[in-house]
Sequence to fold (708 residues):
Amino acid sequence: MANFHPFVVPFVLGTIGLFIICGYKYVRWIKQFDRKQQKLIKKNMFSTRIFPAIKEMFNECLLHLRITKKNWRLGYMHRSIAFGWFLLIVVGAIESRIGIKGPFHFWCAIFYRFFHHNPPINGTEVFFTQLMDLLLLYVLSGIFLAFVKKIHSRILGMKRTTKHTVMDTTVKVALWSIFPLRLLSESVTARLYANGGFLTQTLGDLFSRPVAQALELPLWSLYSLALCIFFLMLPFTRYMHIFTEVFLIYFRKLGLRDSVKMTGYTKFELSACSRCGMCIDRCPLYNTLDINDVQSVYLLRNLRNLEHHQDILAAGKNCLMCHQCAEDCPVDIDLMSIRRISRDKGDTDMADNYRYLDPVKGFNAIGRVAYFGGCMTQLTPTISESMKAIFEAAGVKYWHLDGDRAICCGRPLMQQGFNKQAADLRRKVSELISSCNATALITSCPICYNTFKHEYHLPIPVYHHTEYIDMLIHSGKLSVNKSDTTFTYHDPCDLGRGTGIYEQPREVLKAIGQLKQISAEKENSVCCGMNLGNTVLSLDQQTKLRDKSLQILTEPNPDVVVTACPMCKKAFKHGTEANVKDIAEVVASSVRNVE
Amino acid sequence: MANFGFTIKKTRSFNLSQADLRKVNKLLEEVPSYRLCIGCGGCTATCSARQFTDFDIRKVHNTFRRGQYDKLAEELRKCMLCGKCTLVCPRGVNLRSLIINMRQLLTPSNETF
Ligand code: SF4
Ligand code: SF4
Ligand code: SF4
Ligand code: SF4
Ligand code: SF4
Fold:
C-alpha cells in the first residue's frame, strides 16, 4: 500500500478507539437527560443560539480566555497546548493535502514528514514547513511550562496543583512525550532528507547520518505509540475534558441547567472539569484550615468515577457553599449545584410537609411592601428595627411579614439535600407571600434573598435591603448625612457571589461616610465561616475562618466594619474589638431628620 | 374542675438497660459536640418551628438520647433546618448536624451515593 508503514497502526487504532468510546459515552449521557433538559434540546437545537456557542467554544476550549484573565501565565500554558495543537492539526491537514503524492490517508497528515521526503522548494512549501515548526515550538513551550508547573507551581502563580491519580499521571506522561517525540522524529528525518524547517532541520543536523538512520523508525514508532496511549486513555482520565467542554458549552447555551438529581447534563459537567485546580487556591477550607480533600475538583472526580462512596459523602458535606470555587472555575461549571446533588438525601418522605404554615395565610398588605427579615434577623433585632426606621423616614408603607414568627426560606434544607421537603416549604412560603398582596418583598438576609430570587417564582419584585436602601437614596426619598466615619465592607457570600450585588452597598456607604478598600473584596471576599452550607465544621474551625475574614476587614483600621447579612454580623461581633454593624443600622443612624 | 393552667405530666418511665442505644452511640460519634448539651432548652425557646407548633427540639434530642425513638421521625419533619437553635446554644452543640443525623438514623434514606 502506498503511503503506509506498519508504525502508523497504533495511531490508527488509537484514533478509532477514541471515537468509539467517546461516542458511546456521549450517547449514554444524552439518554440520561431529564425531561426538561430533553425538551430544551429539542426546542433550541437549531436556533441561533448556536452562534454564541461557537464563539464561546473557540474562546474557551482553544484560547482559554477565562483562565488568561485570571492568570495569564497559566492561560498561556493552556492556550499554547490547546490552540497550538489544534493549529498543528489544521495546518498539517492543509499542508499534507497539497503535498502528498498518491493516495491520501488521514494518518498522512500526522506523519507528513515521513511520507513526504522532498525538501520544500516553492514558496508555499517553505512557508508551510516553517509555519509547522513554529507551531510545534509554540506547543512545546506550553508543555515546558506544564512541566515547570508540576515541579514548582508558584512560578505559574498557583499555590498548589491538583493531586492526581495514577491513571492521570500515566496519561500525562504520554501527552508530554508526544511533542518532544514529534520534534525528534521530524528532526532525524530532516537530517536524512533535508525536509525540515528552522527548528527540526537545525536540531536534526546535530545528529550524524548513521545515528539518524538508526533512530528514524524507532522514533516515529514511539511517536505513534504515544498518540495511541494518549487517545485510548483519554476517555477514562481528566483529558476527557478536551471534547466534553465543547458539548457542555453547547448544551449550556441551549439553556440546560442542573436538576436536583444527577442527570446526563451533570455527567457532561463532571467530565468537562480539567482538574486545573483553580478551585483550590481560594477555598477557605484549604487556605485557613488546611483541609485538602474536599474541594470541588476532588468531589467532581469522585462523583465521576462513582467510587469511594464514603469519600463522596464526606467531601460533599464539608463545604461552606461560599461560591468561591464556582466563581473561579474557568469552565464555569455549576459547582454549587453539583455539591447539592452530592448531598441528595433521596425522596423517602412523600407527605406534604409544613402544613402548619397554612393558617398563617390571609394577611392583607395591599399597597404596602412586605418586609421579610428572615430567621436569622430574629436573632439580630436591631437590623429589623433599623429597617423599620428607614421605611418610616422614607415614608414607605410596610408590613413586617415575619415579625413575630420566623419562617425559613428553605435554603438550608435545599443545601443539605432534603429536596422534597425544601420544595414543600417553598410552596408554603410562596403561597403565603402571594396571598398578602404586597407590592414588593424586601429581605434583610442574603440567604433568603438568593433563594427568593433563584428558586421562587414570586409575582412581586424582590429586593435585598442594600438594594432597596440604595434605591431610596437615589430617588431622593431618603436623605442621609455624610460624615467622616470610615467603613470597610464585607461582601456576604450569598449576596455577592450568590446574586452579584456588589455596587449598591458601596454606593450607600459612600453616601454616608468614607469607604476604605480591603485586600480581598467583591468576588474574592472571604466567607465569615458561619455559612449555613456547612454542618460539619467545629466551632473552633469556624472561629479560625472568621478570624481570617476579620483580619482582612480590620486591616485598614475602619471605624465600623459593615456587613449586610445577619449571620456575618453575628459571626464578626464576638471576634473583634472593632464596631460591627449591618448596613441598615449605619444608614438608620445617619438618616437626616425631616422637619 | 377549675383549670389553673397546670397539668400533671404522665410519668415517662422506661428501662434504660433495655433501650437500644446503638443509634445514640452513632449519633454521638457523628456529632461529638452533643456530649456538651446541658439540657437548658435554649434551642427550644428560639425554635422557628415551635412558633407555629408544639414541636420541642430539646425533648426530641433528649428522648432520642435515651433510646426512645418512637414517633421522633414524624416530629423531626416539622423542623425547617433554619439553624437558629445552633446559633443560640450556649454549649456550642451543632444542632443542625444533630438534627440531620437523627433524621438519617431514624429514616435511613436512599442516599444517592
Ligand atoms: S472544577 Fe473548575 S476550577 Fe476546579 S479543577 Fe475543575 S475545571 Fe478547574
Ligand atoms: S464552596 Fe467554598 S468552601 Fe466549598 S469547596 Fe468551594 S471554595 Fe471551598
Ligand atoms: S453569614 Fe455571610 S459570609 Fe457568612 S456565609 Fe452567610 S453570607 Fe457568607
Ligand atoms: S440549647 Fe444547647 S445545651 Fe441547651 S438544650 Fe439545646 S442543645 Fe442542649
Ligand atoms: S433548625 Fe429546626 S429545630 Fe432548630 S430552630 Fe430551626 S426549626 Fe427549630
